[in-house]
Amino acid sequence: MTSTIHSSEDDLVFLDEPEHDEFSAASKADSSWRVMIIDDDPDVHSATTFALGSLEIQHRPLSFLHAYSAAEARNILETESDIAIILLDVVMEQEDAGLQLVNYIRKTLDLADVRIILRTGQPGYAPEIDAIRDYDINDYKTKSELTRTKLYTAVTSAIRSYEQICSISASRRGLETIINASTELMALHGLQNFASGVLTQINGLLGLTAEGFVCAKQNTLVKDIEADELRIIATTPQFSNLLNHSLAAVTDPNTLDIVTRSLNEHQSFFEPNITALYFNNVAKKDFTLFLDTGLHLNEMDKRLLDVFCGNVSVGLDNVVLNSRLHNYAFYDLLTGLANRLKLLQTLNETLASELKTRSALSLIDIDHFAETNDALGHQFGDLLLTAVAKRLFKTFGNTCQIARVGSDTFALLGDQHQVCPENILALFNTPFEVDLQDVQLTATIGLIKLGDYDGDASEALKDTNIALKRAKTHQRGGYEYFTRNMGVEIRERVLLMHALRAAFEHERLFLVYQPQIDMTTGKVLGAEALLRWKTDDGKFVPPDQFIPIAEYSGLIVDIGEWVLRSACHELVHLRSLGYVDFQMAINVSQAQFSHPLFMQTLHKALEETKAPPKFVELEITESMAMKDPDLLIKTLHQIKQLGVSISIDDFGTGFSSLSHLQKLDVDKLKIDRAFVNDIQLDTNEGSIAKMIVQLGQNLGLSIIAEGVENQMQADTLISFGCHLAQGYFYAKPLTRTDLHAWLKQKESA
């Protein structure tokens, strides 16, 4: 390799590389190593050719073929030959497009010599070990880990492997043995099984019946072993007494010397009567195979052995990687407990076994953990979680499955007599020692008994979480068992939420307008804009069902903005029809009102629709008014500066503080329909409505009653001093078309 690699150039090849002219394949095709790049990202092509363009291997440069899809790659591969390496993206048109192409290369085109290096920008789509076994993949890497140096190394190694395979392709015994050996090794899971397989295959490759063992320095894979301790992890029968022992247990000095030298110097040694083969690997996990025989190799045998060792090294990388991936996939790195995926796996097994009838699942949520984490720091929070995990494991570890399924949420699966509130809550009776401090914690628990449960593991975990949320709502430090009613209620809310979102996106929501009347003169003063939802099958969903869902989901902010703009547009249209004194009342929700961009939204709606602020009235609920009086006073002041008036809706239902009410710069109180309905002829009922009218008069506010349905209610309200009303007695909520017709009829009456 003639190019010089500087550390300053060793940036990630696939991150922000500059463009570079591609190496001319046509001019040097006869003497170059042909590399085919298959990737749907043009930047990856340019970055790769930039990184490798000046590289020479065995005094031969590289030339490049480019394909930007699996289909284009197939067309090229059908006509081109002598391709040494294919750098192949795993995910292109489809998630498995890369693996399908490998299958086509190996099985349909029968190209066994070309070396294939899979690359992926999405680690979750990296092939599993059985995929590597089935498709004979030379290597695979995530794009983010392929620095220029590592890309050079991978390509150099692959080309050398390709050259060696080509040079021995005439030897049927060597080629078939290597492929079969690699395939069989790839099928072995776990480091010890892999090491045993290497011992077996090396004997088969060289036609030996030698005894031996494999020694490795694998402190990161084998628990409870001190760093740098060499262990014998696989043996043939003659050396079985050394299995799982330290290398120091070897008594023969010559054996000990050759293995130690091989591991220390990272190379193979061939003595007349004994051999030590060192297998290099990217993960730098020392791996030496000892044979109690000398190897007298010809050139072909040496090449066979080199290729075999190269393949074994790749296999070793994959075994190490898969061991890590297994741990990452199924275990929580902080606590060492099982994670959500492992819990679901165990839970599925429990639900399918006889254990189901007596098992229970619990979710344990640490109360106020976020506040502790923010106050004392994430490092302290991690120590706290670890302390909880240790106590859970100490109490339940031998009999139950324990998992960490969320930031501060643990799961417990086991016999329902053990997994019960009393046993779990008892763990939190005594403080936890964290960083030399005693920390008192409480926990809230959701539980489900699996005996009569019909769902799968995922559903059981969701339902337990429903019980946990119910417990957190009702009483921190307490517990709730899941019931079917909880599940039905939550699922109906979720379904309604998704349906509402779809209805809004597909414009199935619309406004109706209920006129507001001066009862003494019959004059129309304006209307209240009301939101309605009509489903595809023609049914109406009541506002008291979908408005709370919209508020809970946060969708009310977008819906509210649309309502505001639509009502303002209608107000402008009514003014164009001659109703210049018409006032439009628009409801504003708590979430919408407290949104930091509400004032900007209001100002923009008025400006873009040209609606006169004087004739726009915003209705806020009494409970909103009392929730954050200081914020409300500030916001109301800004609204009034725009010229918009304010009404308090449903007045009398929110237990207002009169002192707060006096401070609010509002214009109108609306009497709730419940108090209007209480008005009865010749009784004292309706006195609340009367008191609201008197209160409003004392504060200098206008009063309007909603839900007026008959003449008696109207007359009584007028006698109280309330002259404004809306209700079915005057008009039901009308579509904009019906409203126009109704107003026209009122004019001609």
Describe, in plain words, how this protein is organized in 3D:
The protein has 749 residues and is α/β, with parallel strands linked by helices. It has an 8-stranded mixed barrel with strand order 19-20-21-22-23-24-25-26, surrounded by 5 helices. Strands 2-3-1-4-5-6 form a 6-stranded mixed sheet, with helices on both faces. Helix 7 (172-186) runs parallel beside helix 10, helix 12 crosses helix 13 (378-396) and helix 16 (484-505) crosses helix 17.
Can I get a quick summary?
By secondary structure, the protein is an alpha/beta fold.
Strand ordering within the main sheet: 19-20-21-22-23-24-25-26
Instruction: State the end-to-end distance.
Output: 99 Å
Q: What proportion strand? A: 15-25%
Q: What is the average per-residue confidence, as pLDDT, rounded to a whole number?
A: 82
List keywords for this structure.
alpha/beta, 6-stranded mixed sheet, 19% strand, elongated
